[in-house]
Every structure is written in structure tokens, then in C-alpha cells.
């Protein structure tokens, strides 16, 4: 019997791949999924009314690359193809992504042509960044912050106005702390091996691609052919974990809600006990843990304090999410994905998503304001209330977007420790953690956003990889 710890997307995907493996190998491994709350889906939560959809966590999924296509394969297999709403390259949400700098909104270039033009706040066309890369000597390093790397290779403006806000948008983090390997592993390797990104790119053109082939479903092929930028799910992203949960239930996975695990006791290499405070025990042959690393640290602390210490040293940040609905006939915003605010601007907000432009079936203007992240405590202190966040969000959209209306509906949430930060040394730390588990022969696999990528695609792909690894 295998136990899946946590019912977020990581845990649900693990159940999905274990079931597929059972089917492929004619195996009948009994599966349990233990979730602390009364909801499966983790951070993915949607509020859907007849007039608007609020996404309280993630809202869009990228279709590109092996991990993106793999998610689309899963979507089709679950019967969700009809619910997928793509944002194609000609959609305003694909073309218009903005940054807020010096009291103005600036649209970032989205076409090849745009790279040769001067776009404010940049003082030169972006193509000049490549000349900078060619001129710069390389610096031999094990790891570096993504900010340092980009500043060294492409210049300070790109680091401040392109990469720093992008990191805020992806993980609400500080580019000066996040590892270059988080987003630019290949570019960093090119610098280290060949002395620069352009030099590495040129050499790579003469090498055959080693990308693993993935068999594609019709949905994934369509996304590739139509060059989707991102996509959402009609009825709210919550439809996705809900459908996965139903699939697991239909295939006899024993899903136990309101079942918080408080301690893990490893007996031998194929026996492990999961205990809770009420004194209940579940004995399994293997655990797939998809809970945040800091939560797992508490559960293994008693038997494995060194492992717990490494798990606990993966930092997480808190994000404030303010969803706003304005029941106005005319849109209050220009058509765009939204805007991000570079940290150098020292704003209380990280950015605003224009949901009525990217999420279907919105009857008015819908916005989501994101606040805090790496700077949550510094900006809002320890006892910030939801009302304070709402007031700040309304003040900022009034000043930046000139919206003076009172929202018709709103929802505010403070998501405590919701996004892991892959700071410098993260990948080496994860290797060390997995090596410890291997050396001690512990029957546990690590899945979820703490280890192999923070986005939806990464979490699903990590579940698939770990299941394949453990079952072969
Ligand atoms: C605000 C926000 C916006 C985001 N936007 C995007 C986006 O647009 N696109 C994208 O690709 N990704 C986005 N992400 C990332 C994406 O949401 C995550 O990658 C994904 O949801 C993580 O899933 P998970 O299963 O790893 O973790 P979680 O969702 O954290 O799930 C873990 C589960 O474990 C349970 N649990 C914890 N401790 C225990 C215990 N002791 N016993 C039992 N159960 C326990 C929890 O209750 C929870 O249900 C966003 C994340 C956030 C927070």
C-alpha cells in the first residue's frame, strides 16, 4: 500500500500516475491520499458566479515545452479538452504585458521587430543586450543569483525592468536571491562552458537536440500548431483538481480529507507509519510526500533531524491576493494581461492581472492585485489585516489605472508561506536531501512545488518522474 501525503495538485497528480502505472503493469497497489483540510486542490481555488470568476491562486498554465505538453496530455485524458480556453499569439493578453516604471505603464516588446526598437523604460533597443554579452568576460561560478547573471551578461536595465518583475510574477521573489538555474539554467551553462550566452547559443545550433520525445495527444498538438501563449480552464482552474480528484475516487483511491499527518515513523525500507494527533496510524510500504518541505520537516524531525533541517531551509513567501469585480458595462482597463511592478520602484504591490481580459465569461471588469511576496513583512508587518490589503490595492489601482469606482464584489486572502523560493544553492540542497533519503533507504519520494519547479506544469511532471523512477 502506498500513501500520498497532501491533496494539492502534486498529490493528486501522483495518484493519477500511480493509477496509470497500476494499469500498465497489471499491478494492484492500493492507494491512500491523506489531506489535512476538507478540500483537494491546495492553492488552486476559484470562486465562480454568473458574473465573474475569481482565481484565488494560479490562473493560467503555459503550454510550452515537455512539461507544458505533458499537462495538456493529462487534461485531454481527463476529458477536459472542451473546457480549455487558449490565449493565442494575436490575443491582447498575449501581446500586451506591461511594467509600471516611473509612474507610467510601459508595454514590453512581444515581437521580433520590437527587439530592434527603443522601448521605454529601456534606453536602447533590447538587441544591444546581446552585444553586451559578447563583450563581457565570463566568471566561473557554481551558482549565482539570476539578477547578477542577467546584469553581467545583458546589462542592468534588463535585470531591473525585465527579469526582476518577471521573478515577482512567477514566484513573488527577489531576483537578487533566486538562483539563475531557476529560469536560465541553459544560458548559465553556456556562459560557464563557452564564455557567453551568444557563444553558447551558436555552438548549440550545431548540436542535435536531446529533448525527450513525448507522445502528444490532439490537444497538445493543437496547442503547438496554434502556438498558444497560455491557457485557462472554463469554470475556473479549480475544475482541474476537482476532475483529478473524481478520477482518483472512481479508481478506488481512498481519499481521506481532514486527515492531517503529524508524524512519520520509518520502520524499515518498505514499512512506514503515518500518525496523527488523534492517535490514528496508517502503515504503508511507501510515502509520496507532496506537502511543503517545511511541513514535512516537522514530521520527520524526531527520527531524522538532519533531514528536517535541510527541508526546513527551503524558504517560502507569503502573498496577499485581492480579487476585484466592477459591474460596469464599459471596461475600466485597456486589453492586456496586466502589469508587474519592478522591485526597484518600491511599490506595495507586485502587480495586477487583468482577469476580464484573460479569463472567459466575465461580465464587467475583473482584476487581481498581488501584494507582498518576498517583501510581505517589510511592507505590511506581522499583523496586517485583509482590510488593510484591500485599501492598499484600491489606492494603487486608483493611482495607476485611474479606477475610482467602488468594486461590486471583492475577495481578499493572505496566502501564508505559499510559494517556495529557489534561492542560490537550491538545486544542490535538493540533491543533498534526496541523497540522504537514498543512503538511509527511506521509503519516501518527494513531490510538489518545493523541489523540482514552482509552477503547475513542474509539479505534475515531478509527480510523473518520481512515480516512473520508483516503479522501475
Ligand atoms: C498565488 C499563487 C499564484 C500562482 N499562479 C500560478 C500560475 O498562474 N501558473 C502556474 O503554473 N502556477 C502558479 N502557481 C503555483 C501553483 O499553484 C503550485 O505549483 C501548485 O499549486 C503547488 O501544488 P502542490 O501540490 O505542490 O502544493 P499545495 O498546493 O501547497 O498542496 C499541498 C497540500 O498538502 C496539504 N498538507 C500540508 N500539510 C499536510 C499534512 N501534514 N498532512 C496532510 N496534508 C497536508 C495541504 O493542505 C495542501 O492541500 C501559483 C501559486 C500561488 C500561491
UniProtKB/TrEMBL annotation:
Compartment(s): Mitochondrion inner membrane
Cofactor(s) demanded: FAD
EC code: 1.3.3.4
Keywords: FAD, Flavoprotein, Heme biosynthesis, Oxidoreductase, Porphyrin biosynthesis
Reactions catalysed: protoporphyrinogen IX + 3 O2 = protoporphyrin IX + 3 H2O2
Flavoprotein recorded as keyword: yes
Cofactor descriptive note: Binds 1 FAD per subunit.
Predominant localisation class: mitochondrion
Enzyme class, UniProt record, top EC level: oxidoreductase
InterPro entries per record: Amino_oxidase, FAD/NAD-bd_sf, Protoporphyrinogen_oxidase, Zeta_carotene_desat/Oxidored
Annotated ranges, domain Amine oxidase: 9-465
Recorded metabolic or biological pathway in which this protein acts: Porphyrin-containing compound metabolism; protoporphyrin-IX biosynthesis; protoporphyrin-IX from protoporphyrinogen-IX: step 1/1
NCBIfam families linked: proto_IX_ox (TIGR00562)
Family that this chain belongs to: Belongs to the protoporphyrinogen/coproporphyrinogen oxidase family. Protoporphyrinogen oxidase subfamily.
Protein purpose: Catalyzes the 6-electron oxidation of protoporphyrinogen-IX to form protoporphyrin-IX.
Name this protein carries in UniProt: Protoporphyrinogen oxidase
